[in-house]
Amino acid sequence: MRRLQYNAPVISTFFFLSLLALVLGTLTAGGTTWALFSVYRAPLSDPLTYVRLFTHVLGHTGAEHFLGNMLLLLVVGPPLEEKYGSRTLLSTVLATAFVSGVLQCLLFPGTALLGASGIVFMLIMLSSLSGMRAGRIPLTLILVAVLYLGQEVYSIVFVRDQIANLMHIVGGVCGTAFGFLLAARKRP
């Protein structure tokens, strides 16, 4: 008899926390989403300001936003967690959340940011570097970067929507940086 395995604990827990945030947001008509799962410039005297720098990646505007992010997270994340380990992957998620949260507050003081897109794009770029060998840059990195960055830059310039494309790019840059750092750490 086969038993259910709670594999990829960081990715699985991220999924369930995001689902909980979505359910709470729905039950409170967005109250908890605004209070806990969105980052925006707020007084530094408010303790939740610091919490939101990390928890904004768990919030989503609705089921469609949630599903779009979670499907990619669940496909790309587990192999990376297996390769790099849960502690390392958790560190990359927290660092990406913090960087994007701080940049959102500094660069866009009048708007809020929420969602796991930056984390997903960090994982995508990290994945494109996961097979890197010493002194070589994987072709997949170049292809993913050109397609991904091209799409995001196009959206920034030509599309007017509520999507934080710059924060997607920030996530991608974080993933690329982590990929190179982790590859350098592996070398003897």
How do you describe this structure in short?
With 188 residues, this protein is mainly alpha-helical. It has one domain (9-186): Up-down Bundle (Rhomboid-like fold).
Report the biggest beta sheet as strand number plus sense, adding barrel if it closes: none
Q: Within the CATH hierarchy, at the fold level, what is the topology?
A: Rhomboid-like fold
What is the overall pLDDT average? Answer: 92
CATH architecture: Up-down Bundle
Elements, N to C (H/E): HHHHHHHH
The CATH superfamily bears the name Rhomboid-like
Shape estimate? globular
Low-pLDDT segments:
none
Oligomer: single chain
How would you portray this structure in words?
The protein has helices at residues 9-27, 31-36, 47-55, 63-84, 86-107, 117-128, 139-158, 165-186. The protein is globular and about 50 Å long. The chain has 8 helices and no strands. The protein has 188 residues and is mainly α. Helix content is 70%, strand content 0%. α1 (9-27) packs antiparallel against α4 (63-84) and α6 (117-128) runs parallel beside α8 (165-186). The protein has one domain: Rhomboid-like (Rhomboid-like fold, Up-down Bundle).
SSE topology sketch:
Blueprint: H1 9-27, H2 31-36, H3 47-55, H4 63-84, H5 86-107, H6 117-128, H7 139-158, H8 165-186
Helix pairs in contact: 1-4, 3-5, 4-5, 4-6, 5-8, 6-8, 7-8
